[in-house]
Amino acid sequence: MGVIEGKWKVSILWALGEGACRFGRLRRMLPGITEKVLASHLRELERDGMVTREEFAETVPKVEYSLTGPGIALNRALEPLGDWGKRHLLGG
Amino acid sequence: MGVIEGKWKVSILWALGEGACRFGRLRRMLPGITEKVLASHLRELERDGMVTREEFAETVPKVEYSLTGPGIALNRALEPLGDWGKRHLLGG
DNA sequence: GTGGGCACTATCCTGGCGGTAAGCGATCTC
DNA sequence: GAGATCGCTTACCGCCAGGATAGTGCCCAC
To answer: How do residues A13-57 score in pLDDT, each as one tens digit?
Structure first.
C-alpha cells in the first residue's frame, strides 16, 4: 500500500501507462500537481522500482520516465479499481 | 481514490470481507489501530456506502458492521492489488 | 540582452491525519 | 464497590505530505 500512497501517485502511474513521458509533459497531463510533488513522487516510484528514469545528455535537458515491469503489473492491478470507480462513483 | 484513502481503510475493508464484525472484534483484528481512527474510518466508509452499521438495542451495546454491495465489489477490485503486493513485494 | 522552456531543487508554511488519553452510561463480574 | 466490557466521543498534540513560490544552469528565440 505504501507504494501507491501519495495523493498523485496513482494518477502518475496511469499517465505513464499511456507511454513514456518527459517531466514537463507529465506535469501538463496532471493539472493541479506542483513540480515539487511530481518530482518527489517520481523519485519514490523510482526507488520502489515502479518507474525508470532515463536521462539524455543533450543540449536541452531531457529526462524520460517509463514504467518498469512491476510498474506495468501494478497498473494492471489498479485497473479493476478504476473500473470499480467508474461503475460505482461515476456511472451510478 | 478518496474512498480508500486513510491509513487503515483497506485493512478494514479486508477484515470486513471475512464477514460481518462488531466494533471490538474489528479492533482486535487490526492490531495497532486506535478506537478513534477505527470509528472515524468506519463512519467515512459508511458515508461512502461501503459498509452498513447495524445497531442492536440490547442491554449490552452491540453494533455490527458489514460490507454493502459496492463494498464487496470494492474489495474484489482491491484483490488484484493484494496479489500484486504478494507477488512483487513479498514473493520477490 | 531579455525572456522563456527544461527539469529540477530549496525553502517556507499550513492543514489535517492519525496517535494518545480520558470519559461516558449501562451492565455484569468478582 | 472496583474493575471490566462495549462502542464510541471529545480534546489535545505532533508531524509531515503537499501547496506556493523562487532559484538554478544551459540553450534558443526574439
So the answer is: 999 999 999 999 999 999 999 999 999 999 999 999 999 999 998
| Number of domains present in the structure of chain A | 1
Asked if B80 lies within 8 A of A84 by C-beta distance, the reply is no
**What is the CATH number for A19?**
1.10.10.10
pTM for this predicted structure = 0.91
Please tell me which residue lies nearest to nucleotide D9, judged from CA to C1'. Answer: B36
Residue A92 lies in a domain: no
In this complex, the residue of A1, A10, A81 whose CB is nearest that of residue B77 is: A81
Number of residues in chain B? 92
Cell of A6: 501519495
C-alpha–C-alpha distance, residues A73 and A23, integer Å: 22
pLDDT tens-digit map of B1-54 = 999 999 999 999 999 999 999 999 999 999 999 999 999 999 999 999 999 999
What residue has cell string 463494498? B71
